[in-house]
Amino acid sequence: MKEIDLEELEQSDGKDGKPIYVAYRGKVYDVSGSKLWKTGRHMNRHQAGRDLTTDIQAAPHSPDVLERYPQVGVLGKGEAVEREIPALLSRLLTRVPMLRRHPHPMTIHFPIVFTFAALAFNILYLATGLKAFETTALHCLGAAILFTPVAMLTGFYTWWLNYQSRFIRPVVIKQVLSLILLPGEAAAFVWRLLDPGILDTLGLGSAIYFLLLVALFGVVTVIGWFGANLTFPVERE
Questions:
Q1: Strand locations in the chain (E)
Q2: Of 74, 93, 119, 225, which has the fewest CB atoms closer than 10 Å, so is most exposed?
Q3: How many domains does the chain contain in total?
């Protein structure tokens, strides 16, 4: 099997009639026959002519899709780079494959939806005057605090395992915002516990409290946006 170095691999990027090659775990595949790679770029995110070992591990599909295309070579010795996973974790990932890609996408929805709901139910309370809505908002805020650390831990785990702790701008933005989100949620929750009637009368305190909830809504919106954009990038002209 022909040995291909990274420089040669980069030349096979699908431009100017060149073939479209990608590498995975030391094997080089020709994906020129795939409609999803016809421009040399997949999902507006993955560029042909590169080693996609870590990227594919974080993809919503399994690496088996590459077996549909011909293998045209192997990466030269020393060219393939992959994180060495501890033996215990490696065995666990073999037994439970979903732990490789799915923990964070499964858990991130909970702090997002509960933070959204905390603001929504408070708006309903202000519109209707029904205290049950405001109480429900408090419960949602508590649930957000419960699930945010879980989402953060699984996020760092995914970043370490699937992205090899590389600097990726959307990931870094999500990490920084999550460190802002959790204390913000906690502050709003404690404030409401200490002042149960914070929204009963309009004033400076109630306005600041409500704006805090709006700010938390904005933070989780940005976190969700960058997370979704990692998997389904926005097409840019």
A1: 3-4, 21-24, 27-30, 41-42, 46-47, 71-75
A2: 225
A3: 2
Co-location of 96 and 55 in the same domain:
no
Distance (Å, rounded) from C-alpha 121 to C-alpha 118? Answer: 6
Q: Which residue has the tokens 């858990």?
A: 107
Query: 134 near 200, Cβ under 8 Å?
Result: no
**What angle is formed at CA 39 by the lines to CA 33 and CA 43, rounded to 5 degrees?**
95
The string of pLDDT tens digits covering residues 34-71 is: 877 777 777 666 778 888 776 666 565 667 778 888 88
Tokens for 208, please give them: 């600041």
CA distance linking residue 215 with residue 195, whole number of Å:
20
Query: Do 111 and 220 form a contact (C-beta atoms < 8 A)?
Result: yes
Question: What token pair was written down for 47?
Answer: 């560029």
Cα separation, 202 vs 228, whole angstroms: 37
